[in-house]
Design a protein that fits this description.
heterotrimer, A mainly alpha, B alpha/beta, C mainly alpha, B: alpha/beta, Rossmann fold, four-stranded antiparallel sheet, 10 helices, globular
């Protein structure tokens, strides 16, 4: 177990370093951020001085080292727009995004697991058909459009749920559903095919042959096996949620990291974009690590 | 042994399976009996319906395309085919009839500890009052199949056992609630020869101690000789010959049985090549009306176009072959 | 590299289905294929097909509802937007962007990913390790985050959208093709060609490409829906297609603020996305079953 953790942490650190490199290189593609930070008519000497101060006159690899050493100390520079440290801004907005992602994830799991299991157990029945329709349409709708339609139905027409902001817990419902809808499709499919395979296995037949009640057989003995493939891809879908949060937060005016970064992109607020994207990546990498570790908890075969 | 009422009596059992290609009679009018303390060997090639016969007894046909059962299966005089799924699960499976399947590598759930799986039957059949007690009984079960330090091994997972050990665990699980009848579906096929012998003698000892009736499914006639009292030979969904082991070996009546026996290589015997039976078993989608072996039979006659009834050629030795018609 | 679908080594498929062209005709998903064909026709026919000028402003005709609602007319089948532009004509115009983006994004990401996947799988060793590592690192940045940071550096527009999508999706091909090559490499005929002294490019073209062609076709079809959704999301955020070009995502962004009184503005383009993606996914599933029965998810 210890070895798994150490190896996972090592991989995570390499991934984070790699992500920081990609982010650094891409944001340098655009050339010089200095022109944005000074008035257009600034004298050449002022530009040169700022460049020197920011280390922009150094070779690119030294700039990266500089960027990295600052980043490690939590220094991404000040937001041009908000006049505060970029990282501080990002970390202030992060909890709202993680909260939304968790709510969305809970929604998708609570919908896809029963649907997938029942579709497999009652294969070919009406519930299987419903599962199929949900799976097919879910993957064909952009999450922001699901959000817009939900707003149209539940906020505009029925006036049941609030559409914008995050004042009360009720506010999370619509954004969480729009964000959680997309992975429902794939998760239902994975659970269903996993259950179908497991239900036909020898050990489930053996369980039946010793008189195990059907309920236990499905929800305890078959389910944990069918869960394994789902857990493997959970990290991918959690990343999808972090990614989708950029759009969904914009739709619902959710005060999270995603909306902040999108706004920063328009404001060319490089420090916030860099910090925001790197922090999102770190959250994603760490959640993947957690998924890997929980995998070894469910499957005794890979416990070390 | 034959005087008392049989433990299991199967009459005219027919199992239909709905495959994508059509409806198949995987088991077609099979009848046999098993007595207490007796081992019946069910012999035949793969696809001959041995396993389907046994799954039919437990009513555990494949979930998809699972078929219709006709005929009669009586256990201790109680008809099983009229029981509901619920009754089967609660009162029969695991409690009166149990099964060990072929591959010990896949017959135990990989993500639950052996103790969890082994203690289950005690709880389901309400033989114990607490989980703790169930685990104690499970440890006793492991001890009975000669596994050392059972208390510790209960916390292990299946992958921590060797193949032979797993088959012991599976046997312990099957025997947990002291069933009257044990169905062993090729329990040693996947194991090393030395381990095979151990499992077989384990089954023999358990039978001696508990009087459990055993149906041993196998395609290996040499295993039958060591363990079984009686043999039923299946071919293409039907039983074509039954009798005591000795009779079947000494005077096999059906050409198919003869061919099977000739296919066993004997130690010290010099043969250029093993005898194989030419041809393939008929498709069960469209089986021949007459004797199903006729197409491959070296002694085929014109009368073989009609299905031969059973001809009794000795004490309990029944052969479905027209060749035996005159010996009646 | 954890979610590569595994190919099981089952060879005996028991079902005898009709083979050849008959099977193709029998099981083909005609409705989805028709929808895709219509989208393609709309994209190629473009302006000559649309009843009105998709960019034609007519402020007097703003917020006309679709024809079946009170106040609507057949003049504007699906109504008009805030500037009086015909929604139906704009959906036809938007099809063009979807098709162009899908075409380039799929061709380019497919080519790049396939090449890297083949190289990684075929050569193994440090080449493989490097490519796999780069792919893993790329995948550790959520795709839209990557798109956002690329959008800061590049000017928004169709080219940027394609670049962003290629950058995001090449790993998808690389991973799957790599594992395919790894299993192909073990086959006898490839090993034999190697021993016989065929050069690496010859082996690629003669032995590997034909074998991964089916997989590529399926992947590409399944990618259509994702690309369209991705483009719509970028355009919705204002980082993708820019006005006066028309895109379904952009239409949704424009209509969003009028959601309370012009519901058709957000439903119609969304339905266009839904139908197109749904059709592409259904056709992709069908192709997968047809070409690669072993990978079928029941």
């Amino acid at each position: 177990m210890q070895r798994v953790v150490v190896k996972g942490l090592g991989n995570a650190i390499i991934s984070i370093l790699g992500a920081s490199l990609i982010i650094f290189v891409i944001s340098r593609l655009s050339g010089d951020p200095v022109s944005l930070m000074l008035p257009i008519d600034a004298p050449k000497s002022a530009i040169d001085e700022l460049r020197r101060n920011l280390g922009l006159d150094l070779p690119i690899w030294r700039q990266y080292v500089l960027f990295l050493s600052h980043a490690v100390q939590g220094d991404f520079g000040n937001s041009y727009r908000w006049q505060m440290p970029a990282l501080q801004l990002v970390l202030e907005r992060l909890p709202a995004t993680i909260g939304l992602a968790i709510a969305a994830f809970a929604f998708s799991v609570l919908l896809s697991v029963p649907l997938g299991v029942m579709s497999a157990v009652y294969r070919g029945s009406w519930i299987d058909q419903i599962g199929r329709v949900v799976a097919m349409t879910g993957q064909a709708m952009p999450s922001f459009w699901v959000g817009l339609v939900l707003i149209l139905i539940f906020a505009v027409n029925l006036n049941w749920l609030p559409a914008f902001g995050a004042e009360t817990p009720v506010h999370v419902i619509l954004p969480a559903i729009s964000l959680g809808w997309y992975p429902v499709a794939a998760q239902t499919r994975i659970i269903r095919s996993g259950m179908l395979e497991v239900l036909d296995s020898d050990y489930i037949r053996m369980g039946r042959a010793v008189g195990t009640p059907e309920r236990l057989l499905i929800w305890k003995y078959a389910f944990r096996n069918a869960l394994l493939p789902l857990v493997t891809i959970m990290g991918v879908y959690f990343a999808g949620m972090l990614s989708g949060a950029f759009v969904v937060e914009t739709v619902f005016a959710w005060p999270g990291l995603g909306r902040t970064v999108v706004e920063a992109v328009f404001a060319r607020d490089y420090p916030v974009v860099q910090a925001g994207v790197l922090v999102t990546s770190i959250v994603f990498i760490l959640s993947n690590l957690l998924v890997d570790l929980s995998y070894s908890l469910i499957d005794p075969r890979i416990r070390l | 042994m034959t005087e008392q009422a049989p433990l299991l009596s199967v009459k005219n059992l027919t199992t239909h399976l709905h495959l994508r290609r059509g409806v198949v009679r995987a088991v077609d009018g099979v009848s046999f009996e098993v007595h207490e303390g007796e081992t019946l060997g069910l012999v035949g090639e793969s696809g001959s319906g041995k396993t389907m016969t046994c799954l039919s007894i437990l009513q555990l046909l494949p979930r998809h395309g699972g078929g219709k059962l006709d005929g009669s299966i009586k256990l201790d005089g109680t008809e099983l085919l009229s029981m509901s799924e619920n009754e089967m699960a609660r009162n029969v499976r695991g409690q009166k009839v149990a099964m060990i399947s072929q591959d010990p590598m896949t017959s135990l759930n990989p993500v639950f500890s052996v103790g969890d799986q082994l203690s289950g039957p005690f709880l389901y059949h309400k033989l114990v009052r607490s989980v703790r007690e169930a685990w104690k009984r499970a440890a006793d079960g492991l001890r009975n199949v000669r596994i050392h330090s059972p208390e510790q091994r209960l916390t292990n997972y299946p992958h921590q056992f060797s193949g032979g050990m797993r088959q012991r665990v599976a046997t312990a699980m099957a025997l947990a609630c002291s069933p009257r009848l044990l169905i062993a579906d090729e329990p040693t096929t996947a194991l090393d020869v030395t381990v095979q012998v151990q499992i077989m003698s384990l089954l023999k000892n358990i039978q001696r101690d508990t009087g459990v009736g055993i149906i041993l499914i196998t395609h290996d006639l040499s295993i039958v000789a060591g363990l079984c009292h009686r043999v039923a030979v299946m071919y293409a969904g039907r039983i074509i010959e039954t009798g005591k082991v000795r009779d079947i070996y000494r005077t096999p009546g059906h050409p198919y049985t003869q061919a099977l026996l000739e296919a066993i290589p004997h130690l010290g015997e010099k043969r250029e090549q093993l005898t194989a039976i030419p041809g393939q078993p008929p498709s069960l989608l469209d089986p021949p009306k007459g004797c199903r072996f006729a197409a491959r039979c070296p002694k085929r006659m014109s009368v073989c176009d009609d299905y031969p009834p059973g001809f009794e050629v000795g004490d309990g030795h029944v052969v479905h072959c027209w060749l035996k018609a005159d010996q009646r | 590299m954890s979610v590569v679908p595994t190919v099981t080594a089952q060879s005996n498929s028991a079902d005898a289905r009709p083979s050849g062209p008959r099977r193709l005709l029998l099981g083909a998903p005609w409705i989805p294929l028709t929808v895709l064909a219509l989208v393609l026709v709309a994209a190629i026919g473009g302006d000559s097909l649309s009843p009105r000028d998709p960019s034609g402003l007519d402020l007097g005709a703003a917020f006309h509802p679709p024809f079946w609602r009170a106040g609507g007319s057949t003049e504007h089948l699906l109504g008009t937007d805030n500037l009086g532009r015909d929604v139906f004509s704009r959906i036809i115009a938007g099809a063009r962007v979807s098709v162009i983006v899908s075409f380039y994004a799929i061709i380019l990401s497919g080519t790049l990913g396939t090449l890297l996947g083949i190289v990684a799988g075929y050569f193994g060793g440090w080449v493989d390790a490097t490519i796999v590592r780069i792919a893993e690192i790329k995948m550790s940045i959520p795709s839209l985050a990557l798109a956002l940071i690329l959008s800061v550096s590049l000017d928004p527009g169709l080219t940027t959208v394609v670049i962003v999508i290629v950058f995001t999706y090449w790993t998808w091909y690389a991973r799957i093709i790599r594992s395919e090559i790894l299993s192909l490499k073990e086959r006898d005929y490839v090993a034999f060609a190697k021993v016989a002294g065929c050069s690496a490019p010859t082996i690629f073209v003669r032995h590997l490409l034909p074998n991964i062609f089916n997989t590529l076709l399926v992947l590409a079809t399944l990618q259509i829906g994702q690309v369209i959704i991705f483009e719509a999301s970028l355009s919705f955020l204002g980082l993708g297609i820019q006005s006066p070009d028309v895109s379904w995502g952009l239409m949704l962004a424009d209509a969003r603020q009028y959601i309370t009184y012009a519901w058709w503005g957000i439903t119609m383009p969304g339905i266009a996305i839904l139908l197109t993606c749904l059709s592409a996914n259904l056709v992709g599933d069908w192709l997968r079953d047809l070409l690669d029965p072993q990978r079928r998810q029941l």
